[in-house]
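Most newcomers find our protein records easier to grasp once they have seen one. Sequence and backbone structure share a record, each on its own labelled line. Nothing more is needed to start thinking about how sequence determines fold. As an example, a complete record with its sequence and its structure tokens follows.
=====
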Amino acid sequence: MKKYIFTAFSVLFSLSLFAQAPEAKEDSLKIREIYDAALVKGQAYKWLDHLSNNIGGRLSGSLNAERAVEYTKAELEELGLDKVWLQPVMVPKWTRGAREHAYIQTGPGMTTEVNITALGGSVATNPAGLKAQVIEVQGIEDLENYKDEIKGKIVFYNRPMKPELIQTFEAYGGCVDQRYSGAEAAAKYGAAGVIVRSLSHKIDKYPHTGSMSYGDLPDSKRIPAAAISTKDAEYLSGILKLKKDLEFYYKLSSENHGEVQSYNVIGEITGSEFPEEIMVVGGHLDSWDLGDGSHDDGAGVVQSMEVLRLFKETGYQPKRTIRVVLFMNEENGLRGGNKYADVAHSKNENHIFALESDAGGFTPRGFSFDADDAQFAQIESWKPLFKPYLIHYFEQGGSGADIGPLKKGDVVLAGLRPDSQRYFDHHHAATDTFEHVNKRELELGAATMTSLIYLVDKYGMKHIDLEKDRKL
């Protein structure tokens, strides 16, 4: 036990000396150079402008997704990287079809139109649409309380994101199961369809789409699933209190088309000293089709590309191999992330670090890390270098969906954490568009990511087996 305490203390103490080391001044100057280059000569905003306004929404399997692959590959080649390639990956193809239509009927000829959108992966209604009475529930677990009333009706999931939670991703996590698994759960009770309150704190008319799953339900049991805007969810809930037998009508024309081939886009700078040690920085190239995917995840794509460009711009030659990976199909399958990890593991590639940006292009606050205690202590010792840039959030736990499959052994995973308070105003909605991204905030995020990659590349990642020491 004493040996364990001494070892842990030694690690923390030695790492705490980093700020006093001669290298600290050199690192501070290099990071200043990185931020200057991003803010004065940045390319991320220009790249995002093209992705958003010249290409648009990039749903997996779509023509726009294909165009985005071609565009980003060409831009990476322009940077003069050591290698750029496409990694084939099979992805699901789902199309929305004709614009969705919905209304609430409270009596003969008495209807009010509402705003809905099909959830990604949903089956269509029949061509005439679906009309039925509504059962409002506060989440999947609430279905049991209405089990004798659900058959033949539309289940309305209306559990909102908790406004009292400062961490908005925590609030999102508290109700996303309604969207993802709500149709599967309701169908088992005989529901005719589901509508789900959009996952946003903002009360507006814009419905938010997102992926959903039927689990192992046979095709014959699958029911149409749609999101309703928060404003209309509030209205529907209120009017249900006055008229429980009202009817809800909606029509979806969505269709699943099986799998098609797409690609991850990959570029790398080969390490000068330890080329076999690989570091990844990335975001996902696909997006939903309602907006143009600027925050989710065009921002992460161009910030990740900018990391390698900033190394080129500032004349920094990495010791380790740095890869940018633009993953395909994060939104409705995670096929790109899984494919990249499968190939990496099959080749026995030595990934030591991976950083993902998939939380919007807002002001960066810091990072979360999937790392052991010794690794996290090393990372925390770098905090003083980020203080001039108002980066303060260094938390242990969590990284990113696309890099998650890489977790193996000592690899450290990290996620950029921007200010998240406005993120879910735009997430998966028609409001996720280029004009809602601030150029300076986007560039600050790219510089912050580059600075972290620089430090990890220069010093590597330490690993002290504290569990082993405890047993000695």
Q: What stands out?
A: DSSP finds 14 helices and 16 strands in the chain. The domain at 2-94+258-467 is CATH 3.40.630.10 (Aminopeptidase).
